[in-house]
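for the writeup, i need someone to sanity check this before i put it in the appendix. the sequnce is what the collaborator sent (i think, or maybe the updated version? ugh). structure was predicted straight from it, no edits. if anything looks off just tell me and ill rerun, i have time this weekend
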Amino acid sequence: MKKYTNLVLILFFITIISCGYQPLLSSKDTNFYIGKLSFEGNRSVNNYISKNLKKFEKGNGNENKYDLNIITAYKKTITNKDSEGNPKSYNIEIDADIIIIYEDGNKINKKIIKNKSLSAKSEKIKEKELEKEYIQNLTRELTKDLIFFLKNQ
């Protein structure tokens, strides 16, 4: 009974005091904006990245402006085969070489690689849908890493 009352008291104080949590990747409190955004490489990966970075393209003027050149590559390699030679699993890899150009003209190169394993399905349509979902998730993670890097510049 005593543990239960202690737990209730702790939860009560947490809700009253509030912990002040703020998401790290929110676009409200950023200290930067993206001016020019250019892409080369895999079109579908570039479209997902562009969509994820869209909310960072507007600035108030008092933030740092970054121009980004992003070169992407997408690789799907067979990692495991069965005895008949049919693929059992794949490795999906998204590779992004990012050139960050500051307002003063300085450049920084950043390379981000994300990969995920995909098991082969008997129905190829489901496998393609899953592959597309994995690509979206990997580009979302890649974009989060990029935004976190730009916030800490």
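Helices lie at 2-17, 43-53, 124-151. The radius of gyration is 21 Å.
thx in advance!!
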